[in-house]
Amino acid sequence: MAKWLYGVGQACARRSRTVVAVWLVVLAAALAGAVASGAKTNNEFTIPGTESQQALDLLSKSFPAASGSSAQVLFVAPAGRLVTSPAARSEIRRVLGVAARAPQVVGAVSPFSSQMVSRDGRVALAQVLYPVSRMDLRSGTTAALQQRVAGAATGGPLRVVLGGNAFGVTGIQIGAEEAFGVLVALVVLLVAFGSALAAGMTVLGALLGVGIGLSALLCLTGVVTISSTAPTLALMIGLAVGMDYTLFIVSRHRAQLASGLPVQESIGLSIGRSGTAVTFAGTTVIIAMAGLSVVGIPFLTVMGLAASLTVLVAVLIALTLLPALLGTFGERLRPKPGSRAARAATRAEAPGTGRFSWGRLVTAKPALTIALVVVGLVVLAVPARDLSLAMPDNGSSPRGSGERVAYDLVSRYFGPGFNGPLVLLVQPKAPTGERDLLTAAARVRQEALRLPDVLVATAPQVNPRGTLAAVDVIPRTGPAENATKDLVASIRDLEPGIAARTGTVLRVTGLAAVGIDVSNRLGNALAPFAAVVVGLALIILLVVFRSIAVPVKAALGFLLSVVAALGVVTAVFQWGWLRGPLGVQSVGPVVSFLPIVVLAVLFGLAMDYEVFLVSRVREDYMVGSSDARLSVLTGFHHASRVVVAAALVMFSVFASFGATNDSIVKPVAVAAAVGILADAFLVRMTLVPAVLALLGHRAWWLPRWLDRLLPHADIEGGALVAGTVPVALTRRPEQRGPCAPPAHRQQR
Fold first, then answer.
1. Alpha helices in 109-224 (DSSP H)
2. Exposed, middle or buried, 388 (CB in 10 Å: 0-12/13-18/19+)?
3. What is the pLDDT of residues 580-596, one digit of tens each?
4. Residue 414 and residue 478 in contact, taking contact as beta carbons nearer than 8 Å
5. Is there a contact between 189 and 202 (Cβ–Cβ < 8 Å)?
6. Residue 488: other Cβ atoms inside 10 A
7. CB within 8 A of 294, min separation 6: which ones?
């Protein structure tokens, strides 16, 4: 592969204008497709096949008017006044009359007919009904309702607040925080390269990659349901890996230029050597993200494939567009003699020497280093024992937003269960009369009312065909609370007895029940997903490094990083630690798919650092002396600056997304940012060299029979030729340690 990529790099550098033009055409086509598609996303997370989703589908067919989305209109009277006063009633009728004529609205339910007036008489809750779900509402529908209601309520005695499940994010939200993250990354790159041209090229390539990847994804919104989280996740990962991959290649190119290599030759060697590492690192990320499809949950599959698409584009840009740009700028990227960049690239002092060396420090007493790192990560992971998961609702929306204000008012004046009502569907097993169906549904209602966590159970309603009855149940607790989960389980436990006594089937649905089923399915899918993804990635690392210890150590270190990240998320988002400085809007359960998404994201990105760092250690080991510890120091010496810069770039990108108020993106971004810091600095930069130093030659042991079976990836670029001098990565037989690679593998 290294030789093939060497040719690709040289060819792209020679035809730089053509390569750049092709990528610009691809970008224009992708943008045009995204604009034509409308690029509409939604945050309705469902799983076909679950009981609640099947019941919801049945409800939409039998009770079309009750299965669409709805907007809540709350009327709040000033202190000392009542919503039942003549003036307040007049305003409520006027506002609801205007709301009923808003686009797509099929009706408005008065709070007086539904008896939705608070006990103290200060708050009334009305409903505005739509015939379709939120994702099927036309663009601008809810905005039109807000404008009309605000206009009708102006000057009236009541405060009017809109909320409900019709409101929420339906598009990608990108603001100043993300732009600031890119700016910070640019500063890191400027420091790392000492060149504005090299830093700008790196950021430009990453932005072009995410532009193409996201636009291509949004082209599909007309045919595939895509959550607003999917493009955001793809944007985060695409920016991070795009800059990292370019950084890795450009840093080697500038080092080679500083050592005197011609531009064209340096480009080929950079793509052949570092490009091979980028290819394997990108493949690992793609496997990790695409592995989300193994779970069998549609919205997670889309999220994983979306992120995989942006990573694939980032790899292709690094291997084709980047060498074209390197060829275009040519000698301008060569560090000036005597500059900081030139000294950093060509410093000749032995690795690990000088007044201070992190590599020497962590490998001096490797067993102690390993123990300290493991204990530190375990301490960070302790809070993860209390991690609680739930699907997001309006209670996790930003403070001050209409839906959050409405949610809090409903919880305060009517009870938290009104924000997540359950619907019990009663369906006869055999055709029956409407009276018998009503009798069975009434019995279900009485059984539900006996449960301690049920606040209200409404009278049964039968559909026009007399084939299905529905009972609305209001829990005493909110939709994300554990007591509500227990209540859903208790109601479902009633089903066998109900079926035996009434000959009907009982199903539980509603948005709260759907969220609970999604959370349960995600929890059950975490272990098999981890096994599949980690197993595939271990095979890749086994092929790349031809070692048993290196892949196993990489996986164990990654798992420590993940549990540490989940521990910090639990402490911040559930315990409330640092909630003020971090801008956490509400404390409680985090989004249900956070562990599985963080597992995929961190595994892929952690393997990036593993490949970047260990590939240089192995490269120096294959040409070095019999001192394996010296090989660790040499490889660490060459790769550490790039890994540190890459980690800081990635951290700045994720931290910028962690500054948003999105209740879904924020905890995922914080977990990724913490995980990146833990994995890059504690695991890869500290634990990995310590383990390699402790194992010595044993780190590169591989059974001969397995060595014969595995293909040779040549990630070190041993087949390449620099000028006329072969760059053979061989170790003289007399220099091999007892566990060094076998003789038949040395001459490759």
1. 141-153, 176-193, 196-218
2. middle
3. 888 887 888 888 888 98
4. no
5. yes
6. 24
7. 528, 529, 532, 533
Task: Centre a 10 Å sphere on the Cβ of residue 257 and count the other Cβ atoms it contains.
Answer: 25
Q: By three-state DSSP, how is residue 520 classified?
A: helix
Instruction: Copy the structure tokens of residue 688.
Output: 């990995």
Beta strands in 622-700 (DSSP E): none
Place of tokens 């009503």: 438
Domains and CATH numbers, the chain: 2-40+171-386+516-733 (no CATH), 421-509 (3.30.70.1430)
pLDDT, average across residues 114-121: 91
Cβ pair 71, 144 in contact under 8 A: no
Question: How many Å apart are CA 489 and CA 487, to the nearest integer?
Answer: 5
What pLDDT sits at residue 179?
A: 74
CB neighbour class for 500 (10 Å; exposed up to 12, middle 13-18, buried from 19): exposed
Between CA 455 and CA 633 the distance in angstroms is: 66
Helix 511-545 to helix 549-573 angle, to the nearest 10 degrees? 150
Where residue 723 falls (left for φ over 0; alpha for ψ -120 to 50; beta otherwise) is left
- Residues forming beta bridges with residue 475, ordered by sequence position: 454
Asked if residues 239 and 311 have their Cβ atoms less than 8 Å apart, the reply is no
310-328: pLDDT as tens digits: 999 999 999 999 999 999 9
Which residues have CB under 8 Å from 296's CB, separation 6+?
525
* 0.85 surpassed by pTM: no
Count, residues in the chain: 748
Task: Please give the span between the terminal C-alpha atoms of the chain, in angstroms, as a whole number.
Answer: 13
Q: Quick check: helix, strand or coil at residue 76?
A: strand
| Structure token digits, residue 175 | 């603001």
